[in-house]
């Protein structure tokens, strides 16, 4: 497996038209490259590493500048902190939810992030977002 990361984030820009999504994605990519590392871009998705927490504050500010789109965040801190997070950020607000192994929503979110069930992952650990960013 690749090097361990504190929090591995994947943000997808959704909604709006092509021009609006493109402008929001460009602004997001600039923000991410200036502030964090391990940056990968694929279509309208950006994957990067943060320390301590996902970039909620930064995404809320960016969403005010691009009100016609939403930023869908999936954050993986499972290997280090035993939680996953899902959030939709729009118009300066977010509905983030941190989910641990005991939560009912864990299985579905784990599959979104890892592409397999937790039980399958325990037998053969893989990188998060691997199906999106095939190396």
Notes on the protein architecture:
The protein starts with 6 loop residues before the first strand and ends in a 12-residue tail after the last helix. The protein is 35% helix and 31% strand. With 135 residues, it is α+β, with helices and mostly antiparallel strands. Strand 2 and strand 3 form a beta hairpin. The longest helix has 18 residues.
Topology:
Elements: E1 7-14, H1 18-35, E2 37-42, E3 45-50, H2 56-65, E4 70-77, H3 78-81, E5 83-90, E6 93-94, E7 97-100, H4 106-114, H5 118-123
Helix pairs in contact: 1-2
Question: Can I get a quick summary?
Answer:
The chain is built from 5 helices and 7 strands; from the N terminus they run βαββαβαβββαα.
Instruction: Spell out the helices and strands N to C.
Output: EHEEHEHEEEHH
SS summary, helix count: 5
Major sheet characteristics: 7 strands, antiparallel
Dominant shape: globular
* Radius of gyration, in angstroms, nearest whole number: 15 Å
Strand content: 25-35%
The assembly state of the depicted protein chains is: single chain
- Any low-confidence stretches, pLDDT <50, length ≥5? none
In round numbers, the mean pLDDT is 90
Q: Total strand count, please?
A: 7
Helix content: 25-40%
Distance between the termini: 12 Å
Q: Which structural class is indicated by helix and strand composition?
A: alpha+beta
